[in-house]
Every structure is written in structure tokens, then in C-alpha cells.
Specification:
Elements (H helix, E strand, L loop, with lengths): L8 H14 L12 E5 L11 H19 L3 E5 L1 E2 L3 H14 L4 H20 L2 H9 L9 E2 L3 H16 L3 E11 L4 E3 L4 E17 L5 E6 L10 E4 L13 E3 L6 E6 L11 E4 L5 H9 L26 H14 L3 E14 L7 E10 L2 H12 L4 E3 L3 H10 L4 E2 L1 E2 L9 E3 L7 E3 L3 H12 L10 E2 L3 E2 L2 H4 L2 H4 L10 H6 L2 E6 L4 H15 L5 E6 L3 E2 L16 H8 L1 H9 L8 E2 L2 H22 L3 E2 L6 H26 L3 H24 L7 E2 H18 L4 H11 L21 H23 L8 E5 L7 H7 L2 E6 L7 E6 L2 E6 L6 H26 L2 H6 L2 H27 L1
Length: about 850
């Protein structure tokens, strides 16, 4: 069959992806095969593909395709996450451009806009994954806000509430003034910021004295309710029981004592603002202090802030410092660097805020979820993340699960009165009415009297159920799919969501299925640029993955990104890696094209070189399969690819094909040709998970296949027992050939010029291969040449090549003498080390053995060079 001169990725990729879809190869239904299940970490519905997605999904596809080719019923469930904060922010921004306010149109109308946005942009990232070659079961695509998944979330909320694990509480929360919602502790990123430490003067009541207080946030003085000192601080003993006056506010507040205060920080006196600081909040509760919230939801100062009312907190910080200074109430300010909490979602500086929120008790759920990881029932790769997981689980806080958003599952709490406990929790408003009548003892209560909680649930509260809910395991806990596919096999994710998602999925799995949700968790690294910066849109250092696919082909990008992505280690992105991937594809295509151009002869028997090469490559193939299997078992996917890369590029293309390639104008034995195609087929099977498009293309060209024999579903070759001697003999062969080629290169002798080889052994196992690949006219076994020669050692085997008559013997003698001088100097240094008693007593045996080998090698080379000098 005539094949294209140049491989065309774009044409090939579209053709085969369509073919796979048309023939339903990605779809899975329960059968009698063992299942292999992966659920995708659902990307944000509004998102587009970035380099992190590329890495993560390439790895998942490699695992799924390999499992499919090993006889498993492979099921990769795709889907997207509704991403409450991100999606709501985009919809709000779009409405604002149209002059529409979220509050003005109300919840129901706003949700229509949110769904419109989702339908318009929601499928983008999944379509992009198809370009990468992802073999997801697209018939199973799920969305965390779809009807059944939302019902699952509500059902779980009600169940946990009824178990006493969910409660409503008045607590300090992390307020994101940009997203207008609270966020969990895990979503707060602490960043170092340069600021100021302000020393404020609080006048002591009834005295001319001032008490100086250091703060980084002077704008919060409107919420001050006390000044606290350490009871052991001798500087303030005389102020016990006294009061101070808050600057500008002119409010009298008490001086209290608490050993929480750090005597060494600032002045040792701490202003207490319980509504705006978590630690102050705890001190406030302990000392029964009042609470004054001086900011609104936009982090602007409110009416408590007097003439600063309505101004932004950071504007006030500058202006109030100026006013304090003018009034003589600012002692000084100095540069200060501290860590400031910011929102992971919006980047806004978090404002601590007291609020009524819903919480999930974590201690009950955390203990069993910790045990299954520490006992390796759920295995982490790399294992180092077990310690990270353990630390978090042992110090876990209750999970704040409510968000002040409309896009998300609305909390199923229904209020029937103004009292703190005048509410019920139910899956539907009809169920809620029954409960409300019972709880309130008001028999004529109507649905119209019920008001559902305005807040939505944290997005993670839906995705923590993902491995269960995608198979309807919450609504139908005994259905065929959940019983077959759960627990899933492997999870591929980033370590940055080990708490948000991994830990919580383990908790929900144990709670609702009494089983772990997955057996293995493979943590990928973070994709960074050459300067080790995390790739992001804001830095402008992240390439468009689709542009890379268009430029290098999906296979090239997949290989490029995998070659340097060891588990858990960050990947330093370099576009040259993509070029390397494309070059690998080109190498394979050219090798295949080479075989297709050969003339076949049915009457021709394999020659010795053919047979030797075939015997060796069969063993090398088995050895590489075993090595790849070992790497896969340890989730060293990059290492597995490196083994295959070497097998194809070096062993198959550079050695095997060269050894069996017919001379120009000659034919190849049909038997050898067929064996070569058989090797090519086995290599394509191994390559398919990594480079699915190229491998399927070559597979389909090699022979006409029906739909049951497409490469995507054929069985990979299993490793067989390896004959190590055959491999060792060929390694020796390669060294001999390389030595001869080095001689030609160093003496500028044409590869076509026939030369002779003398050796001190009686035979070579692969003499025919050496004769062919090194273009040797004759090998003289157990013979020494009496002519000037170039000599080298392969192990203890001496190889000598008579020097060409065209060589300058005088110059060769000088070079040999220089090399001899160097080796003798080297030998002296090694012998000196070996005669050092301290070294011999303290060095590990392996190090000593290595030095002894250096000595023996040097002595053998010196002997060869001295013999050579006698002939020059």
C-alpha cells in the first residue's frame, strides 16, 4: 500500500477520533470482564483547557487506553463542575454590562441567565479534550448541577443533618468581598504582602497618659471593644481595670488581660476587634465582649465608621492614618511584611466576618478516612503525600458548606418563623411543610408561609459525591452500574486539591458506600514555566494547548508533556518537549515508510544477521514490556514512556531495522519482513496509550482490520520470560560496532570502506550483525595484527583494526603516547586511593569495587597502547 511521504497529524487525528466514536469504543456497560474505572476531576463548566488539564487528562487517557488493551472493561466518566463562585461572577459581570443587577431581577430570573451561560460555554473544555484524544465515555457525561446530581446532593444534606452532622452556627468566616460569599479555610491562600505597622495612641481614661497599640489595620478601630495585654507584662501592671478611649471614635473600652498576647510583638498591647479578626473573636467570646461589625459585604466601612462610612477599607487605611497623624494619635508607622489571606477564587483580600452559616462536623467522618490511607487501603503516589494528608486530617476543622450565592444547590432548610430554630430541613418543600407543622404545632401552616434558605451549598459538597453520584449511587444505591463500577480504580489529580476533594471523596465513600471510592491516587505535579512560575493567564506564561496541538499534533504534545512529568514532581514546561514528541512521531512514521518500500522475496531465506537481530529484538521487547509493567504498577508513567521511547528509537529503529535492512537494490526475505511487521504491531500496541492516533494509523495500514480488531481494543502483548544472555550478547555486539564506528569517525574513514577486525576471542555470538553494520570484511578470531592498529576493549575482549595506509603514523604515535601518559597518571591516582588505609576502611564496598575496576581497566588499556606503540 502506498503511504504518505509525510505524516499528517491533523488529518489522521480527526479521522480516527471520528472512527472511534462511530464504533462506540469508548462506551462501557457492565459485563463479565473486570472493570477499570476512572472518574474525571470535573473541570469548571466555564473553563477552557490549560496545561494542567493537558497533563492530568493525558495521564488518565494513557491509563484508560492501556486498561482497555489489557482486557478490562474500561470506563472513563467525564463531566464538569458548576463552579459556583466562578460561574456566578461571570454571569454577574455579563448582566452588569447590560445594566442589569442580580438583586433587581431576583433568584429565579438570575438562574435562567446562569443556565443560558452554561449552555453557551459549558461544553468548550470537553470538546477540547476530544482534540487531545481523550477516550471518555461521552454517553456518561455528567454535570454537578444536573437534576439527578442535585437531588443526590440534597438527599445527602438532609441525611447528614438528620444524623446530627450538619448544623447551623454563628461563627467567624472568611468573607470574599469580590465574590460576595464566604469561603472555606482551604480556599484561603496566604500571600506575603508589604504593608505598614501603625502605632496608635489610645488615651487612658482620666489620665494624660497614652497606651500605644500596634496594628496593621487601623481602619478596624471602629470595631474596637477592648485593649488586651499579657498579665505577665510588667509594663502594664498599673493599668489593670482601667479604660482607654478609642482614637477618633472616642468610645471608652476596657483594658483586659490574656496570655494570648505576645509581649514581644509591637508594643505588647493588642486592640480587640472581635468582628474582624478570628483570634480577637475567640478572645471576645472568652471575655464576653460586645461585637461591632464596621464593614458591609463589599468591605466598605458602614455607619459605625462615622465620616468614613461608604468608603473602601484600603482607602480608609490611608486616610485614617493621615487623620490620626494630624491629631497626634499616630506615634509612628514602619514598613512591615505579613501574610495576608486571599481568596483562591478571586484573589481578593479576605475579610474575617461573623455570620450565620451551615457547617458539617468533620471529626466523625475524618477518622475512618484517615485510617484507610495510612493503612494503604487507598494508596497515594508519590507516598510522600500521605504525611500531608495525615496532618490535615488530624487537624481538620468543621467544613463551612454554605455560600452566599444563587448558582448552586439551594440549601434545603425552610423557615417558618423568626426564631433561631424556626426551621426544618427536608428534600422538598412539601416534606418541609409536614415537618414544619409538626415542629411548630401550627396545623394551618401553608407552603406560602415557608421561606427557603437563600444560600447555596459549596461546590465541593457536590463533587465530594462524584464517584458515587455519577453512577446514581445516592438515589439508587443498589443499581447495576454502581455495584459494577464502584469503587473506581485510579484517581489522577493535583496535590493542591488533596483536602478539597480527595479527602472528602474518601469520607463520603465510606459514609455512603461503606467502601473506599478508589484504590490509587496519582498526584501529578504542577506545570511551571522555565522560571519555575506556575502557569497562569495573569502572568501570560501559559501557551494555548489547542495551538500546541495544531502545531505539533496531539500525539506529539502528549509525549512531550509526559516525558518530563514524574509523579508528584512539577513539570517545567518547554515547547522543545513538544517538538521532541513530534520528532518521535516523525521517526516512527519514517521507520514504517522504510519497511513499506522494501521488495519482498518469497524464495529468500533469512540470513544470519537477520536471525540474530530477530532473536535479540524479541528478547529486548519482552524485557521492555516487563520494565513498563513495573513502572505502571508504581505509577511511574513518565519512566514507562522513556523505556518505550528507547525501545522504538534506539533498539528498533537504530539497531534492529539497520541489521535486517536489505542492501540497496536487494530484496528482503518475506519471513523477515513479516516478522518485522509483527514487531511493528507489538510496538504500536505498546505505543497506543501514549500516541493513539499515529499508532492506530500505522496499525490499520499494516493490515485490513474489522471493527473488532481496531488497535484501540486489541490485547497488548504480555511479558514473557527473558533470555538475559541473548540481550547481553547483543549489548556486547553494539559496543563492538560502536567502537569500530568511533574509529572510522576519529580517522575520517568512510563507512563504506571495508576494514578488518582482529580479536583475542574465538568467536562473536552476533558476528554476522557486526560484519554487516560495521562493514567489516573479515573478523580474525584469536589473532593479533602485526600492523599499526587502532585498539579498544569491550569488557575483557580486545579488538584491533589495522590502521589505514593513508594515516600519518608519526602523528598517530604522538596521539598514542599522549593517551598512554594520561592513563598512567590516572592509574597512579587510583592506586594512591586504594593504598590509603583510611579510605579502604571507611569506603563502602561498592565504592572500593568501583575503584578496583578503574584500576584493572586502566591497566588493560595501557597494555593495549604499549603493544600498539611497538608497531608504530
Amino acid at each position: 500500500m502506498q503511504i504518505a511521504n509525510k505524516y499528517n497529524p491533523q488529518e489522521t487525528e480527526q479521522k480516527w477520533y471520528s472512527y472511534w466514536l462511530e464504533n462506540n469504543y469508548f462506551h462501557s456497560t457492565p459485563d463479565d470482564r473486570p472493570p477499570y474505572t476512572i472518574v474525571i476531576p470535573p473541570p469548571n463548566v466555564t473553563g477552557i483547557l490549560h496545561m494542567g488539564h493537558m497533563l492530568n487528562n493525558t495521564i488518565q487517557d494513557v491509563l484508560v487506553r492501556r486498561a482497555r488493551m489489557q482486557g478490562f472493561n474500561a470506563c472513563w466518566v467525564p463531566g464538569t463542575d458548576h463552579a459556583s463562585i466562578a460561574t456566578e461572577a461571570k454571569v454577574v459581570a455579563k448582566l452588569k454590562e447590560q445594566g442589569i443587577s442580580k438583586k433587581d431581577i431576583g433568584r429565579e430570573e438570575f438562574l435562567k441567565h446562569a443556565w443560558d451561560w452554561t449552555h453557551q460555554y459549558g461544553g468548550t473544555i470537553l470538546e477540547q479534550l476530544k482534540k487531545l484524544g481523550c477516550s471518555c465515555d461521552w454517553d456518561r457525561t455528567r454535570f454537578t448541577m444536573e437534576d439527578n446530581l442535585s437531588k443526590s446532593v440534597i438527599k445527602v444534606f438532609v441525611d447528614l443533618y438528620n444524623k446530627g452532622l450538619i448544623y447551623r452556627g454563628y461563627k467567624m468566616i472568611n468573607w470574599d468581598p469580590e465574590a460576595k460569599t464566604n469561603i472555606s479555610d482551604e480556599e484561603v491562600i496566604f500571600k506575603e504582602q508589604n504593608g505598614k505597622l501603625f502605632y496608635l495612641k489610645y488615651k487612658i481614661l482620666g489620665s494624660d497618659e497614652f497606651l500605644t497599640v500596634a496594628t496593621t489595620r487601623p481602619e478596624t478601630i471602629f470595631g474596637d471593644v477592648a485593649v488586651c495585654v499579657n498579665p505577665a507584662d510588667e509594663r502594664y501592671q498599673h493599668l489593670k481595670g482601667q479604660k482607654v478611649i478609642v482614637p477618633i471614635v472616642n468610645r471608652e473600652i476596657p483594658i483586659i488581660e490574656d496570655d494570648y498576647v505576645d509581649i514581644e510583638f509591637g508594643t505588647g498591647a493588642l486592640k480587640i476587634t472581635p468582628a474582624h479578626d478570628l483570634n480577637d473573636y475567640e478572645i471576645g467570646k472568652k471575655h464576653d465582649l460586645p461585637m461591632i461589625d464596621s464593614m458591609d459585604d463589599d468591605a466598605n466601612l458602614n455607619d459605625h465608621a462615622l465620616h468614613y462610612s461608604g468608603k473602601n477599607r484600603f482607602v480608609v487605611r490611608k486616610e485614617i492614618a493621615k487623620e490620626l497623624d494630624e491629631k497626634g494619635l499616630l506615634l509612628k508607622s514602619e514598613d512591615y511584611t505579613n501574610k495576608v489571606g486571599t481568596s483562591e477564587r478571586t484573589g481578593a483580600v479576605i475579610e474575617p466576618k461573623i455570620s450565620v452559616q451551615w457547617f458539617l462536623k468533620m471529626s466523625t467522618l475524618a477518622k475512618p478516612a484517615l485510617d484507610v490511607v495510612m493503612d494503604d487501603e487507598v494508596k497515594f503516589y508519590p507516598e510522600k503525600f500521605k504525611n500531608t494528608y495525615r496532618h490535615w486530617m488530624e487537624n481538620v476543622h468543621d467544613w463551612n458548606i454554605s455560600r452566599q450565592l444563587w448558582w448552586g444547590q439551594q440549601i434545603p432548610a425552610f423557615y417558618y418563623g423568626d426564631g433561631e430554630n424556626d426551621f426544618v430541613v427536608a428534600e422538598t418543600i412539601e416534606d418541609a411543610l409536614v415537618l414544619a407543622r409538626e415542629k411548630s404545632q401550627i396545623s394551618d401552616l401553608q407552603i406560602s408561609n415557608l421561606k427557603q434558605d437563600e444560600d447555596a451549598l459549596d461546590t465541593w459538597f457536590s463533587s465530594w459525591l462524584w464517584p458515587i453520584s455519577v453512577f446514581e449511587g445516592i438515589l439508587e444505591p443498589d443499581n447495576k452500574d454502581i455495584n459494577y463500577y464502584y469503587p473506581t480504580s485510579d484517581l489522577v489529580t493535583g496535590p493542591d486539591i488533596i483536602f478539597f476533594w480527595v479527602a472528602r471523596m474518601i469520607m463520603s465513600g465510606l459514609e455512603y458506600r461503606k467502601e473506599i471510592p478508589f484504590k490509587n491516587v496519582y498526584f501529578t505535579g504542577i506545570v511551571r514555566d522555565k522560571q519555575r512560575r506556575k502557569m497562569s493567564k495573569s502572568l501570560g506564561n501559559s501557551p494555548d494547548p489547542i495551538d500546541l496541538i495544531d502545531k505539533y499534533g496531539a500525539d506529539g504534545v502528549r509525549v512531550g508533556i509526559l516525558l518530563s512529568s514524574a509523579a508528584g514532581n512539577d513539570l517545567l514546561f518547554d515547547e522543545d518537549l513538544m517538538l521532541q514528541g513530534r520528532n518521535f512521531a516523525t521517526k516512527i512514521w519514517n521507520a514504517f515508510k522504510l519497511t513499506q518500500g522494501w521488495t519482498k522475496d518469497e524464495n529468500m531465506a533469512p540470513n544470519d544477521a537477520d536471525q540474530q537481530a530477530i532473536n535479540w529484538f524479541a528478547q529486548q521487547l519482552n524485557k521492555s514490556i516487563a520494565e513498563m509493567d513495573d513502572h505502571f504498577s508504581k505509577f511511574r508513567i513518565s519512566d514507562a514512556l522513556h523505556v518505550l521511547y528507547k525501545l522504538i528509537w534506539d533498539d528498533f529503529c537504530s539497531w534492529y531495522l539497520e541489521a535486517i535492512k536489505p542492501n540497496f537494490g536487494e530484496a528482503i526475505s518475506v519471513e523477515v519482513y513479516n516478522q518485522t511487521l509483527s514487531f511493528f504491531e507489538e510496538l504500536m500496541k505498546l505505543l497506543h496509550p501514549f500516541m493513539p492516533f499515529l499508532s492506530e494509523e500505522i496499525w490499520q495500514i499494516i493490515a485490513k482490520r474489522d471493527v473488532n480488531n481496531a488497535l484501540i481494543v486489541v490485547q497488548q502483548k504480555k511479558a514473557e520470560k527473558v533470555d538475559d544472555k541473548i540481550i547481553a550478547d547483543f549489548d556486547f555486539t553494539k559496543e563492538v560496532i560502536s567502537g569500530i564506528r568511533n574509529y572510522r569517525q576519529s580517522k575520517a574513514i568512510s563507512p563504506r570502506e571495508k576494514i578488518e577486525l582482529f580479536t583475542n576471542v574465538s568467536n562473536f555470538e552476533n558476528a554476522a550483525v557486526i560484519l554487516k553494520l560495521a562493514n567489516i570484511e573479515n573478523i580474525h578470531f584469536n589473532e593479533k595484527t602485526d600492523k599499526p592498529s587502532f585498539s579498544f576493549l569491550v569488557g575483557s575482549t580486545e579488538c584491533s583494526i589495522p590502521l589505514s595506509e593513508n594515516l600519518d603514523l608519526a602523528e598517530e604515535k604522538i596521539k598514542t603516547e599522549e593517551e598512554l601518559k594520561y592513563l598512567k597518571g590516572f592509574l597512579i591516582s587510583v592506586e594512591k586511593k586504594l593504598s590509603n588505609e583510611k579510605f579502604m576502611a571507611g569506603a563502602p564496598q561498592q565504592v572500593v569495587d568501583n575503584e578496583l575496576k578503574k584500576k584493572n581497566d586502566a591497566m588493560e588499556k595501557i597494555a593495549i597502547l604499549e603493544e600498539k606503540l611497538k608497531t608504530l
